[in-house]
Amino acid sequence: MKKNIVFSLICILLFNETQAQNTGAIAGAAVAVAAITFVAIKDNKKEMAKEISQFRSKEYIIHNIIGSSNGNEIQFETESLASDNSGGLISIAFNCNEVQKAGLLLAFFGENTDKNGNLMDAYGFRYIPLKEAQELFKRIDAVQDNNKKYMSSDTDVNNVYIEFEDIKFVIYKDSGQQIRVFWNGFQVIWERAPFDRSKRRLDKWFD
Fold first, then answer.
1. In which domain, by residue range, is 45 found?
2. Based on CB atoms within 10 Å of each CB, which residue in 58, 122, 167, 198 is the most buried?
3. C-alpha distances in angstroms, 109 versus 39, 59, 94, 124, 158?
4. Do 38 and 140 belong to one domain?
5. Bridge partner residues of 108 (DSSP)
6. What is residue 174's DSSP assignment?
7. Distance (Å) of CA 178 to CA 37, 94, 105, 146
8. How confident is the model at residue 22 (pLDDT cuts 50, 70, 90)?
């Protein structure tokens, strides 16, 4: 009987230790995927936006979406859908048949707060699988249509707030309909023109 009790306690301890290790690994992976890179953007936003969409997005994809090649040759495609240099948001389409992953990569860039509390220029990526990205575009369109009268009744005062996982959206009307996006310390504006272009070109790219 005593042996059984001791054996059970050992099993419980081993299970708890394994769970703690797994939790730590998951937390570490989440931190890595959501990592912010601080850079000197300053006045060269157009050049930085080009570098983020064409080069740094690929670095993020191979490290955080595809992962190790395990000695294989892995083909994948990317294409910049729309860029808003002033708003601080770039949309990029991504597809990799070999790992069966495809979707939308949102690149945020602009001011963010570092670990010392200093406001600095930075960029970060948020990947959204294809079906979820398409549904998100439809949902934002529906929210704007359903609340058009409310937002128009008091411009830049009446707002509509929605969430998609860890991304928050505040939709309102200024000179036109505006979408302010909050994610991981970034606050950017998704202008209507690049939003529509992203939605249209994403659908067309995967058609």
1. 34-205
2. 198
3. 10, 16, 19, 7, 27
4. yes
5. 89, 124
6. S
7. 27, 26, 20, 15
8. very low
